Amino acid sequence: MFRAITWTILIYSFAGHKEWRFIHPILPLLHVFAAKSLVDLSTDTRMSRKKKTTHWNGPIEVMHYIRQLPRHDLNQTTIGFLVPCHSTPGQSHLHRRDLAGERMWQLGCEPPLQHQNLATYKDQTDVFFDNPKEYLLTYFPSQVDPSFPLSPFPSSIPGQPASLPYFSQRFNKSIYPWKHEWPQYLILFGDLLQQDGVQVLLEGQGYGEVWKAGREWEGEGKRKGAVRVWKWASPPQTN
C-alpha cells in the first residue's frame, strides 16, 4: 500500500501541471495511514482533542462564521476571498443559497488551457500575490460603493481558457480584464496584511478586522498569519 502511494505521487510529480485532484484515487489509502496516526494520538486525550479541533482550524471556522451571518445581513452584500486557491471549503460547508453565484467570489487559478508557456504563465492568484497592493489599485474602484454591487468580472472562469492581458491606456501598461467591486466582507490570511501597503490601503477604504481564527505560526507561505475577516464599516475619515 505504501509503495502504491509512493509510486503514484512520484509519477505525478513529473507532470508539468499538478492538481490535488490528480491523486484523489489514492485518498482512501491515505485515510488508512491518517487513521493509524489518530489512533496513536488518542492515547493522549488532550493532544488528540487539540489536533482534531484546534490545529489549522481557521479555513474551516471562517466558513462557519460566514454561514452564521444573519440572512438580512447578506441580502445586499458581497464577500471576497483574497487567499490562495483552495484555501477554504465552499458550499460544502455553507449551504447558503443566498451566497451562491456572484455574491461570493474567490480569485481564480485556472491552468494554461491555451498551450501557454508553463515557465511564464500566471493565473489570477499569481498576479495578485506578485504585488497585492498594485492589484487592488488596478482592479478595484478608488472608493467603496456602500450598496456593494456585484463585481463584473471578479475571477477567471473555471473550465475556460485563461484571460489574456491587454494594453490599458489608463494605466499605461498591460492588464487583465478582471474587474472587481469592493465587497462588504474580505477574507484573507494575516500574511497579506504584512505585504507592502496592503493594510494601510484597506484601512483607508474603511475596512477593519472583525474576526480571526487560527494561530500566527500555522500554515505555510501565503497561508500564514491566521484567517481574518475584514468588514467595511464606514467611509474613511477626512480632515
Automatic annotation (TrEMBL):
One of its GO terms (biological process) is GPI anchor biosynthetic process. It is an enzyme of class 2 (transferase). One of its GO terms (cellular component) is endoplasmic reticulum membrane. Keywords: Endoplasmic reticulum, Glycosyltransferase, Membrane, Transferase, Transmembrane, Transmembrane helix. One of its GO terms (molecular function) is alpha-1,2-mannosyltransferase activity. Its EC number is 2.4.1.-. Signal peptide: none annotated. Its main location: endoplasmic reticulum. Mannosyltransferase involved in glycosylphosphatidylinositol-anchor biosynthesis. Transfers the third mannose to Man2-GlcN-acyl-PI during GPI precursor assembly. This is Mannosyltransferase. The lineage of its organism: Eukaryota, Fungi, Dikarya, Basidiomycota, Agaricomycotina.
